[in-house]
User: Fold Membrane-bound inhibitor of C-type lysozyme from Brevundimonas bullata.
Amino acid sequence: MSHLLLRAAPAFVLTALLSACAQEPRKAPTDGDEVRERALEAQTTRRRTGAEIQDRALNRVVRAVYLCDNSERLTVDFDNPRQMATVRTSNGEAVDLYQERAADGIWYRASNHDLRGKGDRAVWTVTDRAPANCRAVD
Assistant:
């Protein structure tokens, strides 16, 4: 008899554990005021004010890619905190430019290089070459 009890004990324990786990799952609300409130809260937390967006852009590096009318491709990393831009040309050259005060738009320059622009347009000038009109693509 004790031999049968030892064999039945693990099965009894297993059955007790499984029945404890088989509680009815709680239902999540799918409509009503609670759901609308959560949805509104989620949208509100993702929204940023204009000042927050501007602050984020001014305090990080922003990358832009320009295609120019002379078939050159420029990848520009605008490092706003340092007031610099690094221009990488399609032939592998990299140039650090320093931000200048522009009346409108952007203006970065170094001794032989100049990048000016507004919106998605820019002019890339290198000494002893014709200026290249460029357009941002990314």
Summary: The mean pLDDT is 80. The beta strands are 61-68, 73-79, 84-88, 94-99, 106-109, 113-118, 121-126, 132-136.
